[in-house]
From TrEMBL, chain A:
Transmembrane segments: none annotated. One of its GO terms (biological process) is translation. The lineage of its organism: Eukaryota, Metazoa, Ecdysozoa, Arthropoda, Hexapoda. Keywords: Mitochondrion, Ribonucleoprotein, Ribosomal protein. It is found in: Mitochondrion. InterPro entries: Ribosomal_Su5_D2-typ_SF (IPR020568), Ribosomal_uS5 (IPR000851), Ribosomal_uS5_C (IPR005324), Ribosomal_uS5_N (IPR013810), Ribosomal_uS5m_N (IPR048584), Ribsml_uS5_D2-typ_fold_subgr (IPR014721). GO terms for cellular component: mitochondrial inner membrane; mitochondrial small ribosomal subunit. It comes from Polypedilum vanderplanki. This is Small ribosomal subunit protein uS5m. Component of the mitochondrial ribosome small subunit (28S) which comprises a 12S rRNA and about 30 distinct proteins. Belongs to the universal ribosomal protein uS5 family.
UniProtKB/TrEMBL annotation, chain B:
Signal peptide: none annotated. One of its GO terms (molecular function) is structural constituent of ribosome. This is 28S ribosomal protein S22, mitochondrial. GO terms for cellular component: mitochondrial small ribosomal subunit. It comes from the Eukaryota.
Length: 444, 364
């Protein structure tokens, strides 16, 4: 039967093709006026599934996908019922007993439609958006730490007060903030956060500590309070630097520190810089060699700071006055420390170390690498460049001098040959002249 | 009063001739006189604190040394020598008379060139002043270079650091006035010393103008213990206008210097006053050695006894002599008598009070 029908159909279409007519369903139905079709779908994807499953579909990522990072920037579940109140809706209708009292005074309130409230919708949307945002505060670029992406270098404030001690003037900086894992018998790979922080009062007191916790806020709090329990006092030389050059080491991390004069600044690893700022050191140079793990750097640097010899110790061990000479004061001597008994000149041995830095470093000398000329120093092109440069090596100075003297590029020959000057300056002078004239006329 | 009027008329006379006070006679022989030099350097006062005050330097690396007591003392002594060097006074000379001589006139060379040629002897080791610099003019005349040309030639072949070919902008009227108002006297004088030779008219004009400004505004402290204080005192003494400086010295308890200034005034103006006695007292009271020792003790923190009274008995006795001497000057030569006498009396009162305290202190 079916086969027959099919065959009939084929024949029918072939017949239509021969007649060059293509019938559509609508033309067929149009002829049949009795059929009144109403297209409607009572079920849809959104109606079939509960909200739970719909949200799941949007917010979930497979475990494999999560590992590939697909969970980053994912939509977060929103409570769409938030802010919605029964009886209050788009059409601003007053329902006595639901959204309004039944009796107001002696009057019985009727159900009635109030004028529409345009702000209601916006409020709801705002409320929903506030739910989805992650709650990060926008930080000033100066407070974003070393890179802005991670927490390193960011300030997390003074440690929490203990009794009467409010840790006034203290600040804490995050040095390292990372995830750490360990394996548990029953839980498997367990993730926690680890923070390594330094705290200090910018005036000699500083301490560092690390802590672990599952929660980010907890780990920072734990670490900074722990650091506050481990404060060390580091004496400052003249209130701005270290007492002498020193070398310090922790594990394979080696640091060479140099004392620097005022105005030099902190030229060192960023972790060391944070420590210096918290301790109150303002001028110092440090070079890290070997392993560069920040925790080791911090430990090595603190060791070095604590092992410094004070002026008094050095003078006493040497049995001589320790005298400071500052070029800015015309090298007028200033005795910074004196021994109890000063030795005479004859008591000083011929091979005694008399250099302050060497005495402080226990006779060791820092091996300074020879400075090689840059790679291009012996190239053909560089020699050509130098030759070209020779002719104009003082041009800047002379230009500067002319500008200072005449306000433009001018020499003793300019009056005779006014056009023989750099084109730019001819234009500039013309422009300035025009401007001055314009100002004059406007003033008049 | 008559005297004062006369003084004003002389000042007016000066001002008509040149803009500022100038030296009529050659001051050099007086200035280089050893006694006067001694007076001037003593008036300057050597204040180590001021000479070695904080300055901007290219490299401010601090260095440390291990020193014995002896070495420390030597260092301090050396710094005192440096200070004395820093206080070496720029000479006070007569304004030069620049009249270049013609050496020869070769008419045959007339119009050999459109320009004049300058020939400079660039022999190494010669003093600039002894360097012969000659000019061949286009008309064939060979003559000594004028001072301006000489100065240019010196600067070309033997440049002095920071001396510029052109007139520095700070000496332009507008800027100069501003700096004077700001009280940047030392800066101006240092720049003038660098830019001009001491016998140039310009140098004399600038310095005298600065000195007069200082005198007018009583800003003597800004030049005290600098190399310019001596020439300034010399200028005032020469032009008989030391009263303001004297006033300042008495007010700031530089009595000894005031006495020396009066002596300088007497010497420069040929007043026959007895000054030998008072000068020997001055010379005795000034003890460089004790000052050096004091500074060393300060450095080593050995000055444990805090002095309650500034002056010793001897100093107080000397002060009385000084006061007497100053009084005699005020009586005879002073032009601002009432002011000076008032100041002197105030000083005397203070001095007596000090003496009483001293007496009580020693008795107690």
């Amino acid at each position: 039967m079916a086969l027959k029908l099919l065959q009939n159909g084929r024949l029918l279409t072939r017949a239509f093709q021969n007649l060059h007519i293509t019938p559509t369903t609508s033309t067929i139905f149009a002829k049949n006026n009795d059929l009144n079709l109403n297209f409607s779908r009572n079920t849809s994807f959104f109606v079939k599934l509960p909200a739970e499953d719909l949200w799941k579909g949007v917010t979930s990522v497979s475990n494999a996908g999560r590992k590939r990072g697909r969970a980053k920037g994912l939509v977060r579940r929103k409570d769409l019922n938030r802010g919605q109140v029964i009886g209050v809706g788009k059409a601003n209708i007053q329902w006595p007993g639901l959204s309004a009292p039944i009796i107001r005074g002696r009057e019985l309130i009727q159900r009635q439609q109030l004028p529409p409230d345009p702000e209601r919708e916006a409020k709801l949307i705002k409320m929903r958006d506030a739910m989805s945002s992650k709650g990060y505060q926008k930080l000033s670029p100066l407070d974003r730490g070393w890179t802005g992406a991670k927490l390193g270098g960011r300030s997390i404030g003074a440690p929490d007060p203990i009794g009467d001690d409010n840790f006034e003037g203290f600040d804490t900086k995050v040095i390292e903030y990372k995830q750490v894992f360990n394996m548990k018998g029953n839980l498997g790979r367990k993730r926690r956060l680890s923070a390594f922080v330094v705290t200090g009062n910018h005036n000699g007191l500083a301490g560092f500590a690390s802590a672990k916790a599952v929660d980010g806020k907890a780990v920072l709090r734990k670490a900074k309070n722990r650091a506050a329990q481990k404060l060390m006092y580091i004496e400052l030389c003249d209130g701005h630097t270290v007492f002498h050059d020193f070398f310090c080491q922790f594990g394979l991390t080696k640091i060479f520190v140099e004392k620097k004069p005022e105005g030099f600044g902190l030229v060192c690893h960023r972790a060391i810089r944070e420590i210096c700022q918290l301790v109150g050191i303002k001028n110092l140079y440090a070079k890290v060699e070997g392993a560069t793990g920040v925790q080791h750097i911090v430990k090595a640097f603190f060791l070095g700071l604590l092992k410094q010899k004070k002026f008094e110790e050095i003078a006493e061990s040497k049995g001589l006055h320790l005298v400071e000479f500052k070029p800015e004061l015309g090298n007028f001597p200033r005795v910074v420390a004196s021994p109890k008994v000063c030795r005479k000149e004859d008591d000083i041995k011929y091979d005694e170390i008399m250099d302050y830095t060497q005495v402080a470093m226990n006779g060791k000398v820092v091996l300074k690498r020879k400075k090689y000329p840059p790679f291009y120093a012996n190239t053909y092109g560089y020699h050509i460049h130098l030759k070209k440069l020779e002719g104009r090596r003082n041009h800047f100075k002379i230009k500067f001098d002319m500008l200072k003297e005449h306000g433009t590029i001018k020499s003793f020959l300019t009056d005779k040959y006014p056009d023989a000057r750099p084109h730019g300056f001819i234009l500039r002078d013309a422009y300035l002249k025009k401007k001055a004239e314009g100002e004059e006329t406007s003033a008049e | 009063m008559e005297k004062y009027l006369k003084r004003i008329t002389t000042l007016a006379r000066y001002s008509t001739r040149s803009n500022f006070l100038s030296y009529e006679k050659d001051p050099a022989p007086h200035f280089f006189n050893t006694e006067i030099q001694k007076l001037l350097s003593s008036i300057t006062t050597l204040d180590v604190q001021k000479i070695f005050r904080k300055r901007t330097v290219n490299d401010n690396h601090v260095s440390y040394k291990f020193l014995t007591d002896k070495q420390l003392e030597d260092e301090v002594r050396n710094r005192f020598k440096d200070a004395e060097k820093a206080l070496q006074m720029p000479p006070v000379l007569k304004v030069m008379n620049d009249q270049p001589k013609t050496i020869s006139n070769d008419v045959a060379l007339t119009s050999f060139s459109k320009h004049s040629y300058v020939f400079t002897d660039v022999t190494f080791g010669l003093k600039n002043r002894d360097r012969s610099i000659v000019v061949r003019e286009p008309n064939g005349e060979l003559k000594e270079a004028s001072y301006d040309i000489k100065k240019r030639a010196w600067q070309i072949y033997f440049p002095l650091n920071d001396r510029s070919f052109r007139e520095p902008k700070i000496f332009e009227e507008e800027n100069f006035k501003r700096l004077l108002e700001e009280g940047q006297y030392q800066f101006l004088l240092d720049r003038a010393c660098l830019q001009y030779e001491p016998d140039e008219q310009k140098y004399h004009d600038i310095t005298s103008r600065i000195y007069l400004h200082i005198d007018e505004h009583l800003k003597f402290e800004s030049l005290r213990s600098t190399r310019h204080f001596g020439p300034m005192a010399f200028f005032f003494a020469w032009h008989k206008m030391i009263d303001n400086l004297l006033l300042d010295m008495i007010r700031n308890d530089y009595l000894k210097n005031a006495v020396e200034l009066i002596c300088l005034f007497y010497k420069l103006n040929n007043h026959n006053e007895k000054v030998e006695n008072i000068l020997t007292i001055c010379a005795k009271s000034d003890n460089l050695e004790s000052r050096i020792q004091n500074i060393i003790n300060d450095l080593l923190k050995k000055n444990q006894i805090v002095k309650q009274i500034d002056k010793t008995d001897e100093e107080l006795r000397n002060d009385e002599e000084y006061l007497e001497f100053i009084q005699s000057y005020i009586d005879k030569y002073c032009l601002k008598k009432p002011q000076l006498e008032l100041t002197l009396n105030t000083y005397r009162e203070w001095h007596n009070e000090l003496k009483n305290i001293q007496l009580k202190y020693t008795v107690g």
